[in-house]
Specification:
Helix content is 38%, strand content 22%. The protein is α/β, with parallel strands linked by helices. Strand 1 and strand 2 form a beta hairpin. The radius of gyration is 25 Å and the shape is globular.
């Protein structure tokens, strides 16, 4: 199970850092929260750290969440210093730099999104895929176009080949009688359909001093079309294209290049939202440290954006997994003292900053049931959302099918039991964790499995 700190405000603090490396060179200290304990480490080098002590936190240090949400800097500074004073008094090597580092944490606490990066096709542009449109109009099979789009087109998108040259042998097979330039104009116009609501939202965000960027996997001629003909060059602060960068968004080098520009303005990785309709792109961006979100529709996008900016409700991102074997999947009985205790649910836990949804599932499975699952064995089922009174829940959900039985080892402080159940058996239970019945219906598990 994901770490559930005793002090809620400390969890919210830690979520703004991508990983331990972000602390190095800033103040030299890294805080890891686990139940009622705090691990204080001092980094000597990037790959090594010295263990100082392991403290148990008394209940007296509980902080009122209203003051935390309000971003009351003075309140947080006073309680943060008070909270750590006893801990640091017991560490002989602590110096004044530690005290000054508190101010850094306080400044970072109430950060909201500063920049947003948008995918082009599927997020800002809403049109049917060109190849589908073309096949319908010219009466050709999709198989005729696959050799190009699954082949040399990949080189065109990263600038290793010129699409005008590569298209020439294919156009006669596709019943195109015009020139290559005419074909490209036909193509680009066929996909010239922007989501006007999204355009207006982008302008609204920019009026609130939130910089907006575009990230796209496109070859150079369509990139130029987006910039000039569709007006994206004026709409966005910058357009990042695979044709210019030399790699696609599933490559971390793409995001390093993007961050050279965006991060150069003093923006932290975790202050950058990224919206894409492709989960593979999202996961790479998340691993790089960005706050990646899967785009499904404008209404959900606007809800999450507004909640983030206004900070009036916590957005919780929890990754879950259906672990299947022999026609059944695993559910776990939560300990009564845990949040939503004495209920049954999947192996799941909060996604850490700097961690992809998929890698969070890998970690949670190992932590909660004691065995390892290779990331490539995880199938993405979707990212589902629930808007509760207290939180907005985002639930990236996966499944993995085991080839052989495994030994289940769970922590008695986290769970009390486990069961292998069919979806019908699971759905019939009245003691499932909040949202589980609805998740089964959304996935149509109840209809697919007996």
């Amino acid at each position: 199970m994901a770490r559930e700190p005793f002090l809620v405000f400390l969890v919210r603090f830690s979520r703004y850092f991508s990983d331990a490396r972000d602390f190095i060179g800033v103040n030299g200290f890294y805080f890891s929260f686990d139940s009622r304990k705090i691990l204080v480490c001092c980094f000597a080098q990037k790959s090594k750290f010295s263990f100082f002590d392991y403290f148990t936190l008394p209940p007296v240090h509980t902080i009122d969440r209203k003051n935390v949400r309000a971003g009351n800097k003075l309140f947080l500074q006073q309680h943060f210093r008070y909270f750590f004073s006893d801990c640091f008094a017991r560490i002989s090597d602590v110096n004044e730099n530690v005290v000054h580092s508190f101010d850094y944490y306080i400044e970072l606490y109430h950060m909201s999104v500063k920049d947003i990066i948008f995918d082009a096709d599927g997020v800002v542009i809403k049109s049917e895929m060109f190849s589908i449109q073309y096949c319908k109009e010219f009466g050709i099979s999709a198989d005729e176009m696959l050799p190009f789009f699954n082949g040399v087109f990949a080189d065109c998108k990263v600038g290793r080949a010129d699409i005008k040259e590569e298209l020439k042998p294919f156009l006669p097979k596709w019943k195109w009688t015009g020139s290559v330039d005419e074909f490209l104009q036909y193509w680009f116009k066929a996909e010239h359909h922007v989501d006007q609501k999204m355009i207006e939202k982008i302008k609204e965000l920019q009026s609130q001093d939130i910089k907006c960027y575009l990230a796209t996997d496109n070859e150079k001629y369509r990139t130029e079309y987006l910039r000039e003909e569709m007006g994206f060059g004026k709409l966005f602060a910058e357009i990042f294209s695979s044709a210019d960068i030399g790699c696609e968004k599933t490559d971390k080098r793409f995001w390093r290049k993007v961050y050279e520009t965006v991060g150069g303005n003093g923006v932290e990785k975790n202050e950058i939202m990224y919206w894409d309709n492709d989960q593979d792109n999202i996961e790479v961006a998340q691993e790089f440290g960005l706050a990646g979100y899967l785009y499904k529709d404008f209404a959900e996008f606007e809800k999450i954006i507004d909640l983030t900016i206004k900070n009036d409700k916590e957005i919780v991102r929890t990754a879950a997994c259906f672990i299947e074997y022999d026609g059944k999947f695993l559910i776990l009985h939560r300990h009564p003292e845990k949040p939503q205790g004495d209920t049954w649910g999947l192996a799941a836990g909060k996604v850490d900053i700097g961690e992809s949804d998929k890698l969070a599932v890998v970690r949670e499975i190992e932590e909660e049931v004691g065995f390892k699952v290779a990331p490539e064995r995880l199938e993405f089922l979707g990212a589902f959302t629930w808007d509760y009174d207290d939180i907005f829940l985002i639930l990236p959900t996966y499944r993995t099918v085991l080839d052989e039985p495994v030994e289940i080892t769970y922590s008695p402080t986290e769970h009390q039991d486990y069961l292998w159940v069919t979806s019908a058996e699971c759905y019939a239970r009245q003691d499932l964790i909040r949202g589980f019945h609805e998740l089964l219906k959304k996935l149509e598990f109840i209809n697919k499995k007996s």
